[in-house]
Design goal:
Two copies of one chain form a homodimer.
Chain A: E1 5-11, H1 13-16, H2 24-35, E2 38-45, H3 49-61, E3 66-70, H4 81-88, E4 93-95, H5 97-109, E5 123-125, E6 129-131, E7 140-145, E8 148-153, H6 157-175, E9 182-188, H7 193-199, H8 201-205, E10 212-218, E11 221-228, H9 234-248, E12 252-255, H10 260-271, E13 275-279, H11 285-291, E14 300-306, H12 309-316, H13 320-326, H14 331-345, E15 349-355, E16 370-377, E17 380-387, H15 392-413
Parallel strand pairs in A: 1-2, 1-3, 3-8, 13-14, 13-15
Antiparallel strand pairs in A: 4-5, 6-7, 7-8, 9-11, 9-12, 10-11, 15-16, 16-17
Helix pairs in contact in A: 2-6, 3-4, 10-15
Chain lengths: 415, 415
């Protein structure tokens, strides 16, 4: 049996005008997918009652079993969602005196005087119900109409998440008997999407039709997601997982939700090694990714951003003669930076970048995008050069991801 | 005359399954809105040819003048966009030998051997054209059909942006005679959204109805956007811009699209000052934001991430006695780090952070989220403490933004 379908409707002119990045669509899509729904589509509309009304009707008529909206439940004039939903569903909203009293109590408890527009938040559908908002004023509105469930959530992501966990998800679990789909994620680095697809093409060709493979490329590498409906025998699924694992083993840095920075920290910890970083063109971005990981401090000792050449000499011990002869963006300087930062911090592994992020500073021999990477470990130092395409920020991002990828490859090779 | 309408279609099961947050919808929505289009809707579909085909037809039939899609232009089996667009538009794709040769050349220039699937990227619509991708393989596909423009862009945000600026936007500008709406953005820091709204409420109450004000809060501060239709007399609009400018002057760090890091670099450059940074809990994030700005190198000399206490002593000259007595997260250490990093790099201004990002390491006196900031300038050193809410990454992000905000406030006060 195919999984029941759900759709998501996000409402707000700040979204269609690009003034704000949506954060609810992804959350709801992930939660619904994990429960076993298939998300048919996500639609984003401006605060405009004609568009909204037409969009809601279309989405209902598509026959999805669950339709969630987020946004437009406030008290200002552009908040239309509640009224338009009621109208489209042939229902009415009425002020609930008990909900109003509850909201008054909530405000009192937080030391806030009552608000003139508070009754706007106490509107309840006569044929639906209001789901309490544990951290804000606007409750969610919830309807069960025939086979369909419709729920209008407020806009702030923290409120959406609170209502989802406390009341909406439990209701959906009760109403639908869902089998969570099977899924497994492999994360690879050091191989392009196209080479990976060649590597696994024979296996992919024999994959049973109910097992779906998808590629998730990012700057750090390519993720492979394997998925199957929840009623597929687990052994069948695990057999494919295991075959794929063997095929991609040389490039596999993690399984599940683990970043490359985290995989590197885990590998260093396992080997009893410590880390220091010397960044020139990446200017702190590599350290920033490392430090995002909880527990980084037991492996990561510190880093230097040596933007000025004098800093490369004083803090990293790069030779002034070499800087003079070869220039800051050169193989020898990358090596000396990686080894120097190990000495400076007393670390066992050093990562170094030196390059030209642009937009200026390039030359025919060293065009913008030229980056030298150095990786020093107790077993030796390697250096590699890449010419990375894109504008300044893209070059920096690519160089940061590549530095992590190369570090992982070096650590893996030394296993 | 109402503005012409545009819609955006984002394609990828990784989006409808919530595995990836979209970054193209907002970019395209903002760019189209700024050009003078009204974005009618943004729709997100999975990689599924039936949904895609139906969705594309519906969106075309809605009569929008511009329809842009992003995603699904790779060479793997789940990349369906090009084929489905061609089918829906009654067109065909054919391998262009000249494009194929160009792509081979691109790979060669980057020292990469040819790819087995390269011809997939050389497919060109017979009744449309391919727009070159300056930083990736997949070109965009572009059609003009009757009154409508359809363009299929690849998925990676950097490629979407590069193609937009180099070829898609110029084409749209040529084809549509648009009146760009009037808009002006003020960027403030050091004041909350609610205090700002009180500060400007009298002015806001008398605003003519065709001038729209909206708030854009972020970690760095609050942006104020003023907007009016393109046919409003410019003097009327500029009068309101000027009044608002006066009201918020003490908090205004920039007008237009300028980040706080860029405003700080500009201010330092104007004063002939140089910058160095000492980061503990922010671990490179402040330097990373500074380095993202083109031309940072003439002001920014470098930074140290002193995760280990020994690095605070050796590289920044923090007193071991103070570290022992007060702990690393303390006012004196923040001051010594800021002053020390100025000495280390020979810089005139130093920014320092030391704090507990969590999830562990907190205590009753210094709970998780405690961060001390130090700012040293030629006129003296200040230190401030904040207790920031949220998980590890949120604390790091807030501390990074706050360090920049405090630096700007100190520089502004010293004017």
């Amino acid at each position: 049996m195919p999984p029941p379908e759900a759709s998501i409707l996000l409402i707000g002119s700040e979204l269609t005008e690009g003034r704000l990045a949506d954060r609810n669509g992804r959350f709801l899509a992930e939660e619904l997918s994990e429960m076993g729904f298939r998300v048919r589509e996500i639609r984003i509309f401006p605060d405009d009652d004609l568009s909204l009304r037409a969009g809601m009707r279309e989405m209902l008529q598509s026959g999805v079993r669950v339709l969630l909206s987020a946004g437009g439940l406030g008290h200002t004039t552009d908040d239309l969602t509640a009224q338009v939903w009621a109208e489209v569903l042939g229902d009415k909203l009425e002020v609930s005196s008990s909900l109003l009293a509850e909201l008054e109590g909530q405000l009192q408890a937080r030391g806030i005087p009552s608000l003139p527009y508070l009754d706007r938040y106490a509107l309840v559908p006569t044929r639906g119900e209001a789901l309490p908002n544990p951290i804000g004023l606007a409750p969610a509105l919830y309807w069960e109409v025939g086979l369909q469930v419709i729920c209008a959530l407020p806009g702030p992501p923290a409120e959406v998440q609170a209502i989802w966990h406390t009341s909406l998800k439990p209701r959906l679990q009760k109403r639908f008997s869902l089998t969570s789909p099977l899924h497994h994620t492999f994360r690879t680095t050091g191989i392009t999407e196209s080479r990976l697809s060649v590597l696994i093409q024979e296996w992919e060709a024999q994959l049973p039709p109910f097992v779906r493979l998808s590629y998730g490329p990012s700057l750090e590498g390519v993720a492979l997601h394997l998925r199957a409906p929840g009623d597929v025998p687990i052994e069948t699924f695990l057999k494919e997982v295991e075959t794929l694992r063997q095929l991609i083993a040389p490039y596999l840095y993690a399984e599940g939700n683990i970043s490359l920075a985290e995989a590197i920290l885990n590998e260093l910890r396992r080997k009893g090694l410590t880390l220091a970083i010397a960044e020139s063109c990446t200017g702190g971005h590599i350290a920033a990714q490392i430090v995002n990981i909880a527990g980084a401090s037991d492996v990561f000792l510190g880093s230097v951003v040596s933007y000025a050449n004098s800093a490369k000499e004083a803090l990293l011990g790069v030779s002034p003669t070499v800087l003079q002869a070869e220039g800051a963006v050169s193989e020898v300087v990358a090596r000396q930076m990686a080894e120097g930062v190990c000495r400076t911090f007393g670390a066992s592994v050093g990562i170094a970048t030196t390059g030209i992020a642009g937009p200026t500073g390039g030359s025919p021999e060293k065009p913008v995008g030229t980056v030298w990477f150095g990786i020093a470990t107790p077993k030796g130092t390697i250096a590699k050069r890449y010419i990375l395409p894109g504008d300044r920020q893209t070059v920096i991002q690519r160089a940061t991801a590549l530095a992590l990828s190369l570090t992982w490859q070096v650590l893996r090779a030394e296993k």
